[in-house]
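Quick one: structure for this chain?
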Amino acid sequence: SSVPSGSRSSKTFKPKKNIPEGSHQYELLKHAEATLGSGNLRQAVMLPEGEDLNEWIAVNTVDFFNQINMLYGTITEFCTESSCSVMSAGPRYEYHWADGTNIKKPIKCSAPKYIDYLMTWVQDQLDDETLFPSKIGVPFPKNFMSVAKTILKRLFRVYAHIYHQHFDSVIRLQEEAHLNTSFKHFIFFVQEFNLIDRRELAPLQELIEKLGSKDR
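Got it. Here's what it folds into:
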């Protein structure tokens, strides 16, 4: 049967507009990539000397969004309305969607629908110049940190869903090293700046402890 256009399988997420070359944020991203290459993730997430914390968090948030976008993109064909009729991370954790503006009361929806809502919402935040200014000298808003925390908390849920519901597909695709490195980088980053409440991390607590113990 032919797939109707506009269905999930024909739609992939568009990555966030690239950080403009020559900008300070681009330099920060290059710094992040260089330190990541050293293999020491704990060091790679630390705020570079003399840098603005908001800017460092902004650059990394965009980067994590792009990474998760790509990782989820590799398994979308396995994450369907029928296979994942609820957005869950194992049997004990289920997520309902609300963005506070269009959908005020949390709704129960399938994982692909939830992740579609989530990624579209994050992209809208990242594209909002008043929240994520890309121009030098434009100050970050006072509520920037709480916005960034909400984005990262929600992006974590995509990792949690992939690990709990699709890890066998990840292994078949030989993507597990890529997924583990990305998630470890993400976790070290949110731990370094205390960006996600411990309770929110509960669905992957064992994995987080395992990743952390290898690095002590």
